[in-house]
Predict the 3D structure of the following.
Amino acid sequence: MVEEKYSWPYGNEVGQEETIESDVLVLGGGLSGCFAAIAAARKGLSVTLVEKGAVERSGSAGTGFDHWESACTNPCSKVTPEEIAEAYVDEQDWYSNGIAHYIECREGYDRLLDLESFGGKIRDTEGEFVGAEFRDEKTKLMFAYDYENKFTIRVWGSTFKPALYRELKRLGVRVMDRTEATALLVEKMSGGSQEIQEEKTVTGTKEKSGNPVRRGIGAMGMNVRTGKFYVLRAKATVMAMSRPARVWLFSADTTGLCEFRPMQSIGSGHAMGWRAGMEFTMMEKTVRAEFSAAGRSFPPYGAGNNHNTWYAATMVDARGVEIPYVDRDGRELKTVSERYYPAPGQKFFLKGGVIDNPKYEYRGPETLDFEELMKRGYQLPFYADLSRMPEQERRVIWGMMVGEEAKTKIPIYQNYTDRGFDPEQHMLQSYGTGWQSANFLEQERQFFGAPGGVMHDWDLKTNLVGVYAAGDQLYASDCAGFACATGYYAGRKAAEYAKTAALGEVCRADVETEQERLYAPLYVSGEDGVSWKELNMAISKAMQNYCGGVKCEALLKEGLDLLESFEQEIVPKLTAANPHELMRVHEVLDILTVAELVLHASLARKSSSVPLCFNRSDYPELDPVNDRKHIVIRRENGAVMTRDVSLGFFGKLQAEYEKRNQDYIQEVAAREKG
Amino acid sequence: MKKVEFTVEQAPCSTAPLKYDETLCIGCNRCAEVCQCDILLPSAEKGKHPIVMYPGECYYCGACVMVCPRPGAIRLSHPLMNRAKFVPVRKTEE
């Protein structure tokens, strides 16, 4: 243990306040936030980027990612952005973010070229894989999954965040590391109301339209090392603060491991938005958890499997008998190479982040189902055995993909190698029956597989004027390409708006209320107080009990009642001894807000749904036609309001995109010419 | 605003994610600068390695090791329960 004399090393700035003014404010410094800031800075605007960690290595891809999906415009691609974006929408039964997916398919490869120009590595420049089936000899690009259509690119993502950080500095973006955004600044705009007509309260009373127009005019926050308070005024704001976590899964002992995404990413953007009246959709969608290395699973990519980073590893059973891959028609594939090509008569197949068990049309090669394997006498445990693969396929999985994917370079690749793992001589065990090496209970839920998030329009603008969203903050988000492409797009649109807008007037009372809320736990003594861990643990248990695999009105309402009692009785007792603990306390307060949002969203959908993984025992009918819609939800003066939006609200993807992005299309064309 | 004193003590945790080699570490604190969970606090003594103040909050990303200018000065290990098993490859018995 540390000597008792150790004192806080960063100084004490509690009560100090600074106001910073910018054209565009970006909240969150992961991939999407960095690209939002770059887009706005390229338009010549002053940009501030706020990051709770340190931009150099923060966010889900802080230490890397290994493959970039939907790069449909790369020179080797045989698919169009329309084909892939429309396939995603169809695959997800239209509970899909058509707008964001189309932006990813259309502009993603441009962001990859940006990353290369900043110093990131996107092609095999050193010729490590010359002659490999997945490598294009002319461009040196390397492909994953579908070698025929070549729209997923293997990348050296561990080089990306430091490169983005350097570029932000070069462009003069004000980067505020170790700064937690805690609340949006909002002003009511005089005159007029938004055109929301069919809105109702959750009790069913129809309200007349007349929703006051609100404008986001920046944010507030604090330094998580010194406690200094910031008023961040801006003409436009981009929210890029990931998605919620630790709502059902919590470990007081190894908290940092209990979710898939970083410990820092717990949905503060969602909580801030909800408090400010922002609209959300699909927040009722949760899946049975897939990743929580604090107990029920292994570190991602660290156990034997054949998905994602490890696709298409050879799998064997306990006896060493190889497990067959089959195509969508059940035809057994004889060679490793065949695992990377569409079936006869199939144009392309989908694999990757949010694609779990795709429809026949998009289904790619896969190992036989577990039940079928048991029938045929295969025995547990299974292993990934790379020794049986061609040398270049083995080396690209173990050494490049495992090595470049998030959290694999040191904890998996280097440490397993130090422990003696040699992919030519060893096979890595798989746990349980599925490829995730995980065994979760039905009530242990997670936001995964394109979960809910902020509702937005074709500009990635929220219902708050001047506030845009990107990356995992958006509903039905998925991977790195999605984050980068939507970040850049949101930054561009925010910049366009900022050019037409003035700074808003900050209400002093709002600032003082937020300061008081933020600092309160510092004044509760540790002896009398409740720790953030105790409250987080109680919330996750409450959500498992009241909002687990099976939901019904009475349960959900009991859950809300319990969370409200936490707000009344426990929140005033929360204690923090320093700014680090204060940051953790506010994370849990945001988790509490998100839990309430999920309960309200679950109450609002009065039917069950397969694509939303949503099961109401009191409304068991599955996906009735009348409920195949977004139920968009927001809070207005304490009341929860909903409105219905059609699943196809984004219209024809290509046409709607091109209507709004001629400037960008011309920019790209000019660059390709020159 | 009333003045408040900060205090800090190492949080107990059943695992030790990070270990420093004092003979290699130069106390540059680059690891503490990049840690996105901010679990490392600089040592009060100049030239000494940071203190793993909040070990349970480690996300096991490895950024601290990647940024370290002295290879081997800092070591990251998964909790024992998470060390996946590997065995020598088996020839098919079919």
Chain B touches chain A through 56 residues (CB under 8 Å). Residues 33 and 74 of chain B are 14 Å apart (CA to CA). Strands of chain B lie at 18-20, 40-41, 51-52, 74-76, 86-88.
